[in-house]
Design brief:
This protein is α+β, with helices and mostly antiparallel strands and about 120 residues long. The chain is about 15% helix and about 45% strand. The chain contains one helix and eight strands, in the order E-E-E-E-E-H-E-E-E. The strands form two sheets. The chain has a four-stranded antiparallel β-sheet with strand order 1-2-3-8, with no helix packed on it. Strands 4-7-6-5 form a four-stranded antiparallel β-sheet, with helices on one face.
């Protein structure tokens, strides 16, 4: 239904098919990328990954844009080290990877420290 961004914070306003409304708050937000947000978003799946390795098919390059393919090797090495560090932080539980996959509309990836859900 809506997204509000603040400093290191994102609040997603959602409604279940039953009509129950709730907020999903991403605190300590470090990275967020959302595509195709529109009126009438339908969530297919929602997942929080922490204390385990993210699936290999999760496109983390959406969160961390890689260097141009013609860039010098040092930039590709730094990029790979950075992505490896982020994956390690998720696997250790230091951060959480939030994945929202749509049937229609918004597709979200985010890395944050805490996720809370509150009904209203």
């Amino acid at each position: 239904m809506g997204v509000v961004l603040g400093k290191e914070l994102a609040t997603l306003y959602m409604r279940q098919s039953s009509g129950q409304e709730f907020t999903l708050t991403l605190e300590g937000l470090e990275f967020l990328q959302m595509e195709d947000f529109r009126e009438g978003n339908i969530v297919l799946s929602f997942e929080i990954v922490t204390r385990s390795m993210p699936y290999k098919n999760i496109p983390l390059n959406r969160l961390f844009v890689p260097p141009h393919h013609l860039a010098e090797t040092q930039y590709h090495e730094r990029y790979q080290a950075f992505v490896t560090r982020q994956i390690s932080r998720i696997a250790s539980g230091e951060t959480k990877l939030v994945i929202i996959l749509p049937s229609l509309g918004a597709d979200l990836l985010a890395i944050c420290r805490e996720v809370t859900c509150r009904r209203f």
